[in-house]
User: Fold this.
Amino acid sequence: MPPKASTSKRPVSTRAAKTTKKAEDVEDLTRQLASKLAISKPREKQRVTPDSPPQDDPNASMRTVNIASKKLSALMETGWTATKDSGVNKQRQEAATCARNIRKNLGTLRKAVASSPIDLERAALSAVGKLLALQLVRPHHPPLYTDPLTQTQFEHALDILLDIYHPLLSCYAHDSDTPHATIPPTPTARGVLSRKHLFHLPPPTSPLDEVTMKLTSTFLLYSTITLSAMFSSHVPELEEASAYLAEHGNFSVWIQKCSDLPYEYRDSLCTRAYSALSKSLETDVSPSPSLTIKFYSLRCLLPTSSSVIKPDTFWDQARKFSMVHMKAARDNEAEAVKKILSESSRLITEVQGRADKDGFLTGSSFLKFCDYLSKIASQVFALIPTYILLH
Assistant:
């Protein structure tokens, strides 16, 4: 008698479950968009080719965005990422094509949509999130700009973010007198400086709803991740870009403005911004902008809830950044110390805005950090007469 077939179910692969959930976690907003948006003017029926929708046909553009978005989600479900492959391959080509189609057709929809512009920008930001999940944002040496396929390294995500910027400003009330909302760059402008305004959004002048909070805070996170991926390959621009970041970058300000969002969501935004910035630079870059960027990354952690970062770990990292800077700038110790003291003063001031500031400003690692600042300051003060004579 043949044995009975087993009726027990095979266990689901944990890896497959995680990959599927990762794809599901990225909202496919285009589905909602298709049912909610109102098209201002109907278009005449035009001939459709497989590669592109009819020109300025919003309905066809909506379908193209939806198809491209689903293809990116399908790539995510396979577990493929750009870091697993080098060079141009089928998956990279498909992702590049999807990104270009999404950007082009969202542009058509922005011109045609009569209502719900915020849903368009949510769909655009969802596409950026998928490009990031596929790890299509990473530095490449030398920068690859000539081939539209290798451009996917970071340019496609940045181009979509640039398209979002000005429409996003129309989604909430803010002071319109902002010099940082610059005109988007020309297609040939591919450096950090031409995109640095993505580090800044004018603060709101009235309360925000939850949808707008998520949209603006996530926009700043994605801008931070994509721009920081460009730092090492655009070293000549770092001095000016880091100065702008320190002066006008307002990621932590926005996270505080979005206090009604779940604390787990806000904590995730902060830690991801810190990770992207603190790991963005190689050891051979100019020490001054490197210190500015790394201390800014620490400031991105300040809006987190009390259980996320330990004070000792926080100040140990600040001391480590400072020590690396002093070692790299040994030829000009006086300027290096001034830079460290300036960045440290600002950091300590902003720490005082935390609810648990007493725990941050009394621990052993904070005292070690202060002792280190005193030590390097006293060494430089002793060198000042010689420094003046030499100059």
About this structure: The longest helix spans residues 364-390. The two ends are 100 Å apart (CA to CA). The chain has three domains: 23-41+48-171, 173-279, 310-391.
